[in-house]
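Deliverable D5.2: sample structural annotation.
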Amino acid sequence: MQVSDFNYELPTHLIASEPLPNRTDSRLLVLDPATGGITDRRFPAIRDYLQPGDLLVVNDTRVLPARLYGRKASGGQVEILLERLTGEGEALAQLRANKTPAIPSTLTLEGDLSVEVVAREGDFFRLRFAGDEPLPVLLERHGHMPLPPYIKRADRPDDRQRYQTVFAERPGAVAAPTAGLHFDEPLLEALRSDGIETATLTLHVGAGTFQPIRTDSLEDHRMHAEWLSVPASVCEAVARTRARGGRVVAVGTTVVRALESAAQTGELQPFEGETEIFIYPGFPFQVIDGLITNFHLPGSTLVMLVSALAGRESILAAYRHAVEAEYRFFSYGDAMLIMAGTAEVPS
């Protein structure tokens, strides 16, 4: 298959650059992949499509203020976007400057924070931060929230709360698991009262999630690595759900990648480490039955992932409908539910 098979036309005015006043104000497009049926709802109606005994799996990663600004010794400006923390005071990062910094060299960031560029690894640079403070603490003081490149504005103080899910706990991501942004505590409590169980895993989303595919053929593309942890408690929750006849619903593509990575031996098992799993049509899903997700960039690996679950034609038809109905797209945009046998519920 070709990358071009997953493109679609998106008017730029549908790219959401601001969050809605309330998390649950989002719209919800419900897609039945078996029939291609589409239903337009509001996000709180997710309760109508989940049943007692179902399991929601969420990602508790916390977005770091991972964008930093400073200067090289020559005075030239530099922008840093961390990819991941790799050790005490060290990180991999993307650097943007008129001229690539020398290796080794020292950068001076806002607040007189000193950073050494120690090596280059492919598209990334290895950085070492001065001082003894933990890097997450330094980032909270000196960093900016790493809004995606399609949001054409500077970050604001409110992004520290809104570009973060309500279940974010483990710092390490440089992009939000955006399907989770639609949930607030009252909705989660309502789902619990409906008999919906919740389980939590971690996948630290990297900046590579926004990198374009540079090959024509899907089979030639290699995914960026991301760190994840699927604890035994998640495996046990999935087993309980299967035993009672419930369904496993992933809140976001990051949860899909984590669960399916942990099941590559043929059975879901606790797993901690990196994954480069690439999910595209033909992928044999072993864990999930449904997915709550946002709308994704044309030709992206995430469009390919949802196409693997629902079928390419069904996804592209749903995206065309979303464009015509003027849904809001991408990180601060609206949501989609993909689950067989649900689109017949009346709006």
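Annotation notes: The domain at 3-63+160-339 is CATH 3.40.1780.10 (QueA-like). The longest strand covers residues 77-87.
The annotation will be released with the project's public dataset once the embargo ends.
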